Amino acid sequence: MKIAGIGSNGRSGQLIVKEAVQRGLDVTGVARKENKSIAPKFIQKDLFDLTKEDFKGFDVVIDAFAAWTEDTLELHTKSLMKLADLLSNTKTRLIVVGGAGSLYVNPEHTLTLLETPDFPDIFKPVAIATGNSLEALRKRNDVRWTYISPPADFQAEGARTGEYILAGEEFTLNSKGVSAMSYADFAIATIDEAVKGNNIQKRISVLGK
């Protein structure tokens, strides 16, 4: 299986690449600056300069693009639509590392985690931006996309346990009443979805056990 990892120099992207390489997959990292991951192959390009030719022959493209500052938040949707355009009407899957704020907290799917009173103000701009990108992606019936939401407590330095819970559109807690997960375990879940998942044009979510 040939996998391209967008944002492979980022904290999440590096671990996703590492997980894929350790499983013996054919992995190519993609980032603006020199390769900081263990990807054996690398495309050094700005995301917005990528072409259809760059993705020719890939089975899966994993998008771990991230933007945090106010002036770059709109790039969540713009970059995702750029990738969707490049993969439009192809067999190549697009797996997106998403956000947790857009997960629903009621069975009717009318209220999101972002809209609850206790959602931290500091994370609201990013949550709104990633939520907007999901809504834009939902309109793309021409792309074999899967959007993966992490838990509320997404731990960059957390331990790799090798276990996780696969959930759906609704905000989920584990048996301890917690929504948490390490980046390393998220990488496992992401590559599992790439290799054996079939959640085409669906949003799923994952969290630690």
From TrEMBL:
Domain of life: Bacteria
GO molecular function terms noted in the UniProt entry: oxidoreductase activity, acting on the CH-NH group of donors, NAD or NADP as acceptor
Domain NAD(P)-binding: 7-193
Cross-referenced PANTHER family: FLAVIN REDUCTASE (NADPH)
Protein name: NAD(P)-binding domain-containing protein
Organism: Malacoplasma penetrans (strain HF-2)
